[in-house]
Design a protein that fits this description.
Number of strands: 23
Number of helices: 19
Distance between the termini: 61 Å
Helix content: 25-40%
Strand content: 15-25%
Oligomer: single chain
Largest sheet: 8 strands, antiparallel
Structural class: alpha+beta
Length: 499
């Protein structure tokens, strides 16, 4: 049956920061009015000023504002919105929120609630993928969920194994074990963490894939039966399962493996009855045409790293999301899509890498975004505003594109070096070290890359000579003395200036 076209006249974004602003831009191009929501901490935030209307939804804690379904539905009704875009994070992968929108007569710009529900259970998703013919990591879901039952499943698979939470994500409720002694500690620890994080202590066991890459495929489906993939993103540079640097294409995929992964991702989307934008995450093991890949999970939403796909395919994924939600067919067929050049995204965080990546909050005394050919900045902050303590500390996404990987890396490094931020500590120097690391330059990355090279990535580079000289003059020293003065990096010493 043909899908019914339903126009969107006014859209509420149930989110904040850079993703809200990103969605507003696509809405303006389509002539859709926009509604921002904000907590008390975000009253003067840029995303509020960027919308046509703004509705307060509660106190600063996310649980009382951005995660409160009733407040968001009420805001949509009060503003006269006829559609809701969830962005990413917060309620974007909650089937109950998609259901609540539908019950209120609002279009949900995302997949059907049933698809979110089916892919929300890791065990259920594994079973679905197996039926769809998508490779999964060899593993078992023990019907006996006692510690002994899970341990027996692990021994049957063979060590090393990974104990994972059925309702898990972000590495929570996950432990590795290379023998019985480690297993005895890993099972109860994973269960406690899963219960605390998700309210569900159900566990399953997989073979541990050593030094895998994390490669994901962007998929898109409409209500007319069309499903396409928009190629891969290499997301192996992670810390504690959180992505830091993403790029496309992946240096690890041969054309043959890329075709196999794309076909598997489309099969996965069809298998779950998917619509709108989604991402199939895979673990990649091995090299060349013989490399193997295994389904990891599906993200039933727009990804943080979607800009790298947009830059190498020349598409606008948010615009496509809106069109598909309105009932239009996909704006592209598979044969229309191709990868051109290379793109890299760096996530700039307010955090202190030298203190265990401790999140930072406080006023942005200086914040000047770089610009130039091939540079895109997606952010939701401006100089002078506070970085709130209540939310994710990501300040901006810096995306660099070039006609080759080397060109994209060079542009990203140059732009990061021209990105002054004072008032809070950031990971900018850490990101530069990642991009300049010989292993990264060679494309030799895996999900343990950051841990393996952490000491080198935390090094603070010496300042340019001109900075040393200027600092010496500022202290009243003669130029000759400056040459023998120990290196001083103002971007380090001025962190926290004025606080």
């Amino acid at each position: 049956m043909a899908a019914v076209t339903r126009p969107i006249r006014r859209l509420l974004v149930a989110n904040r920061g850079e993703i809200a602003i990103r969605i507003f831009r696509a809405c303006r191009e389509l002539g859709i009015e926009t509604v921002a929501v904000h907590s008390d901490a975000d009253t003067d935030a840029p995303h509020v000023r960027a919308a046509d209307l703004a509705i307060p939804i509660g106190p600063a804690p996310a649980a009382e504002s951005y995660l409160k379904v009733s407040a968001l539905i009420d805001a949509a009704r009060r503003s006269g919105a006829d559609a809701v875009h969830p962005g990413y994070g917060f309620l974007s992968e909650r089937a109950a929120f998609a259901d609540a929108c539908a019950s209120a007569g609002l279009l949900f710009v995302g997949p059907p609630a049933a698809a979110i529900e089916r892919m929300g259970s890791k065990i259920g998703a594994r079973a679905l993928m197996e039926r769809a013919g998508v490779p999964v990591v060899p593993g078992r879901t023990p019907s006996d969920q006692s510690d002994g039952g899970v341990a027996a499943a692990a021994r049957a698979i063979g060590f090393p194994v990974l104990i994972k939470a059925s309702a898990g994500g972000g590495g929570k409720g996950m432990r590795s074990a290379d023998g019985d002694r480690a297993l005895a500690e890993a099972i109860p620890a994973a269960r406690r963490e899963a219960q605390a994080a998700f309210g569900d202590g159900t566990l399953y066991v997989e073979r541990l894939v050593r030094r895998p890459r994390h490669v994901e495929i962007q998929v898109f489906a409409d209500a007319h039966g069309h499903v396409v993939h928009l190629f891969e993103r290499e997301c192996s540079v992670q810390r504690r399962h959180q992505k830091i640097v993403e790029e496309s294409p992946s240096t690890a995929l041969t054309p043959a493996v890329r075709r196999r992964m794309g076909a598997a991702a489309i099969a996965a989307a069809r298998g779950v009855g998917y619509q709108n934008a989604g991402t199939i995450e895979f673990l990649l093991e091995g090299q060349g045409d013989d490399a193997s890949f295994y389904f990891l999970e599906m993200n039933t939403r727009l990804q943080v790293e979607h800009p790298v796909t947009e830059l190498v395919t020349g598409t606008d994924l948010v615009r496509a999301q809106l069109l598909v939600a309105m009932g239009h067919p996909l704006p592209w067929a598979q044969d229309d899509l191709a990868q051109r050049g290379h793109a890299i995204e760096c996530r700039v965080y307010a955090e202190d890498p030298g203190a265990g990546f401790l999140p930072q909050a406080g006023p942005l005394r200086v914040y000047r975004e770089p610009a130039g050919p091939g540079i895109r900045i997606d952010s939701g902050l401006v100089e002078g505003m506070d970085v709130p303590v209540q939310y994710d500390p990501m300040l901006a996404k810096l995306i660099a594109a070039g006609d080759s990987r080397q060109a994209a890396i060079a542009r990203a490094i140059s732009a990061l070096r021209a990105f002054p931020i004072l008032g809070v500590r950031t990971n900018v120097a850490f990101l530069i070290n990642v991009l300049r690391h010989p292993a990264f330059a060679a494309g030799d990355v895996h999900t343990g890359f950051v841990d393996e090279h952490l000491s080198a990535l935390l090094e603070v580079p010496p300042p340019p000579e001109i900075v040393v000289t200027a600092a010496a003059y500022a202290r009243g020293a003669r130029p000759a003395a400056a040459a023998t003065t120990p290196a001083v990096d103002p971007w380090t010493t001025l962190h926290g200036w004025g606080r």
